[in-house]
Amino acid sequence: MKKLVLIDSNALVHRAFHALPPTLTSPKGVLTNAVYGFTSVLIKMLKDLKPDYIAATYDLAGPTFRHKEFEEYKAHREKAPDELYAQIPLTKEVLKTFGIPIYEKQGFEADDLIGALAERGKKEKNLQVIIVTGDLDTLQLVDKDKVVVFTLRKGLTDTVTYNEGEVQKRYGLKPEQVVDFKGLKGDPSDNIPGVPGIGEKTAAMLIQKFGSMENLYDSIAEIKNQKSKIKNQGLSEKLIQKLQENKDQAFFSKKLATIVRTVDIDFSLEKTDWRKNLDLQAIEKTFKDFGFYSLVKRLSEIDVQSSISTLDLNLAPALLQESTHIKSCDSVKEIKNAVDKIKLKKEVVLELVGDRLVFTSDSKEFFSTKTELLSLLKEVFEDGNISKTGHDLKPVAKEFLKKGIHIKGLSFDTKIAAYLVKADRKDYDLPIMYQNELGKDLAVGGANRLDAVLELKKIFWDKLKNDGLIKIFEEIEMPLVPVLAETELNGLKIDISSLKKLSLSVNKELSGLEKKIHKHAGTQFNINSPKQLKEILFERLGLKGKVRKTAKGALSTAAGELDKLSGEHPIVDLILKYRELQKIKTTYIEPFPHLIDQKTGRLHTTLNQTGTVTGRLSSQDPNLQNIPIKTELGQEFRKAFISSPGYKLVSLDYSQLELRIAAHISGDKKMTEAFKRGEDIHTRTAVEIFGVTPEKVTANMRREAKAMNFGLLYGMGILGFQRASGTSREQAKEFINRYMAEFSGIARYMEDIKKKACKDGYVSTILGRRRYLPEINSGIPQLMAQAERMAINHPVQGTEGDFLRIAMNRISDLIHKEFNDNDVKMLLQVHDELLFEVKNNLVEKISKVIKSIMESVYRLDVPLIVDARYGNNWRDMEPI
C-alpha cells in the first residue's frame, strides 16, 4: 500500500520553536531553531514512514470562518513571538527543495485543509493517508488504518502513530467521537467553551455510554423528571441540569471543534509525488546557508534513490566535499583508475553519503561513485586481502549486497570499536566520537569524515589492545557486520490474513474484558487512563496493596505495581489481561502489515550490534526481541511468521544457556553435575532446596526453583523472589538461604565477582568483553546495589551474547561455503534462538550441521544443548 503524508506545518513549527534553544542560528546570524527542528522531524518522517506522496499545509494570517462565528475563538492565546513567525517562510524553503507542495487557503485552518486532503486520499485505492502533526487536533480524522496520525509525544524524536486502536486506547472513544468529546469538555487551547463543569472523565464516560451528543440529549429528553431512569443511566440530576442549560453551547462547541473536510482545493496525487520534484542540489545549498551541517549526514537515512535514478541527478558535489577535492567516478574508465589505486595500496576507507560511495586509499585522493555503479567495484570489495575501514559499515555492506556483492575484508569499523571499548555510550555518531576522543569539531564533508575515521582508528586500536579486546574485535565483532547486513536483507515472510483474523479475535476479547472491568468497577471509565484507573482502584474500590508512588506522589498503576494487587480484587487480573492484549495489538498486530517492504514483500528488522551494554543484539523497526512467547496470544502471533513455498522455518534454540554458563563460571559442583547427567536443572534445584526426591517435586516447587535459578543471576533479592514466586517474605528468605547453602559455588561466585568489580572497576565475560561499573565504588547505596547486580549478571549474559555472535558468524561461513544462496537463509536472532528458512529437502541436513556448530561454539565444563524444530510457521513446529 502506498502512502500519502499530510504535514501540519504550523503545529510542527510551533513545537520545534519551543523545543529547541534560541541559540541555533545560521552563519549569517538568523535564528533557525524552529527551522532546524522542523527539518529534523521532516527527515525522521521520510526515514520512518517512507512516503510515496507528501503535501504540507499552513495557516494563513487573518480570521477563519470560526473567528467570524465566535469572536472569542483562540482569543486568549498569547501571540507567538515574531522570531517564530520569521522562520515560517524558511520552513517553506526547505519543503520546496524536497519537492513537497504547500496548501493554504484564506478563511480556513491548516487542519481543515488536511481534512479535505485526507478525504480525497481516502478515495484512492491502495493508499494510506498519514497525518504528521505536533498535536492531537486531527485525531477525529483517523479512519481505521486508512487514515492515521503520526505525532510527537515528547520533544522532536519521541513519536507515536494513532490508528483507531490507539485513539480508543487514549480516550476510550472512536475517532469520530472525538468532536462529541470536545463539544462537552471544550478545548481550552482553542478557547472552545464546552459545558462548564464537565471535564475529561465525565465527557468520555458520557460519549462512551451514549455514543454521541445527539444520542445523549435525546436520552435526557426521554428520561427527564424520571428519577429511577436517571439513576439507571448513571446520570445525576445535577449533571443533567448542566447539560440542559448549556445544550446550545455544547453543540456550538462541537461545531467549532469539527474539522471541515469539504474545502475546495486543487489536489492530485501526481502533484504530491515529491521525488519527481526533489532537488538535492537545492537541499545542499539550503542546508549550507542555514548551517545545518549535522543534518547533511542524516540525508543518507532517506530513501531517495528512486528519485535520483529517475531524474539522473547526482548528490551535489559540495555535499561531499568541504576542504578536500573528491573526484567523481561515474564512468568505467574512472572507476578502473580508482580500483587500480586501491589494489596497489591493499586498503580502502569508505562511507555512504546519500546515494554515493565515498572512498580513499591514501587520504590524498578521494573518490565518489554512484551506488548504482557499485558492481564495477566487485573485484576490490570481494577481495578479502584488501582491508576496508569505515564508521558504521553495515549500511555499506547492505548496499553492496543489494548489487549481489558479498563484501569481504571488513577490517575496522570505528563505531564497533568505540562500542567495544565503552559499551554504555548513548551515541556513536562519528562527529560525537571525534569530539569525545580528539576534543574538536568534525568539519563537514565526505573527505573530512574519512580522515576522521583514520584518526579514530589509531586511537581505538590502542585502546582495544590495552584492554585485551583485539581478539573479540577481529574474530567476533568485525565478521558479524556483513552477517547482520545479510540477515536484515533476508527479512521474514508475514501472513497478513492470519494477522487480520488475530486482530478480530483480540478486539472481541478486549471488548469482553472491557465490559467485565466496567461491571466490577460499577461505572464506565477509560481503562487506558492511569488517572482514571487510579481513581477506580484506590478510591472507588479502596484497594490497599503496597504500591509505590510516582514521582508526583500518586499511587502507581504500572504493570509491576498492579501485579502486587493480584488476588485482592477480580478487576486487577482482568486489567492486566486487558493491557497484555492491548499491547500486543498496538505494538505488533496492527503495525506489522504496514511495515512490510513493498519491493520484497517481507518484514525487515534492524539488528543493533551496539544496542546493549552486555553484548546481546537488540532489534528495532520493528522490535522482534520482545514478542511474547509464553502466553497463548504470543504464540498465536508467532503463527503469522511463515515460510515461503518450498521452504520450512527452522528454529535452533539453546537450552538453558545462561544457567550452563553460570555453572561453568562459578564451578558449582551440583549444578555442573546435574547438567552433565542431562537432568532438568529446575527439578534438581527443587530437590536440593526443598529436600525431596525428584518424584516428589511438584509443578509449584519447580516454578519456584526456576524463579530462583534465573532471578539470582539478575541480582534478585528477597523481595524480588517473593513477588516472582508468590511466597511470603519469610519463605523467600528461607529459600534463598537454602539455595546459597546447597549451591555454594554460585554463592561464592556472586561474592567474588562483586569484590573483583570493586577492585578493577569492571567485570568481563569468558572471552573478555568488559562492562565498566564506576557506580560500584560511588558510596551511594542505591547505585552500588545496582552495580553489584550488573556485576553478577554481565559475565553470564555477556558470554551468552558472545556465543550467539560466534554461532552466527560460523553458520554464515558454512552457508556460503557449503550451500547455494537460495538453500538456506538466516532470518533472525531472538534471545538464545536462531531462525532460518530452509529448502524442504535440506531441512534435516542443514539443521544437523547448524546444531553441531551451535553446540561447539565454546568448550564449557557442561555440555551445550540446542533444540531444533521446523514447521510452516514459527508457532506450529515439531522436533527434527
TrEMBL record:
The keyword Nucleotidyltransferase applies. It catalyses: DNA(n) + a 2'-deoxyribonucleoside 5'-triphosphate = DNA(n+1) + diphosphate. It is an enzyme of class 2 (transferase). This is DNA polymerase I. It comes from Candidatus Yanofskybacteria bacterium RIFCSPHIGHO2_01_FULL_41_53. It comes from the Bacteria. Belongs to the DNA polymerase type-A family. Its EC number is 2.7.7.7. Residues 2-275 form the 5'-3' exonuclease domain. The keyword Metal-binding does not apply. In addition to polymerase activity, this DNA polymerase exhibits 5'-3' exonuclease activity. GO terms for molecular function: 5'-3' exonuclease activity; DNA binding; DNA-directed DNA polymerase activity. Keywords: DNA damage, DNA repair, DNA replication, DNA-binding, DNA-directed DNA polymerase, Exonuclease, Hydrolase, Nuclease, Nucleotidyltransferase, Transferase. It holds the Pfam family DNA_pol_A. GO terms for biological process: DNA-templated DNA replication; double-strand break repair. NCBIfam families: pola, PRK05755.1. Residues 634-842 form the DNA-directed DNA polymerase family A palm domain.
